[in-house]
Specification:
The chain is mostly helical and 186 residues long. It has eight helices and no strands.
Length: 186
Amino acid sequence: MPSGHLLKLSPWVAGGVVLGFFAMGHLQDEKLFRRFLGAILLGLVVSHLWRRRSMIGNREKGENQIPHQLWFASLMGVMAGFTTMVANASGPIMILYFVAMRLSKMEFLGTGAWFFLCVNLLKVPFSYRLELITRGSLALDAQLAVFVAAGTVVGHLLVGRINQRQFETLALSFTALAALRMLTGD
């Protein structure tokens, strides 16, 4: 059940948001942080692919290797909370978490939607305090809302046309691309 995943992550994500809030004034080198995050993400993608490959042919053992342990949820939650606060970049982390939990594509999308709604609401007072939310940013959000709605419709049409394996491959590919961009981008 997706809500169980969100409940398991919630305290850790909240802690990561608070850590990110306090770190915002102390992060001296944004490029170094981005590269560090990119390296972590790429490492997680490789780790996931290696684990998935080792499960082939041994389904029973593979089921036991899914990281449902508290340490995994806490690590991913703190990382997601921290990165969403300092770089608005928790998407790739959550993709890896949801794929590792083996959520179906519809559970993945629904859980992700609820996750980002809740996390973004949690971030509002912190973002306001850091002056990241302004009249100008709200005006830009309003202008972009039509594109969000269009993306929702297109996404809904596309998700029904791809199978679970293709969905996971795309999710992991986009995560790896984001990680590589963080590692190499200026």
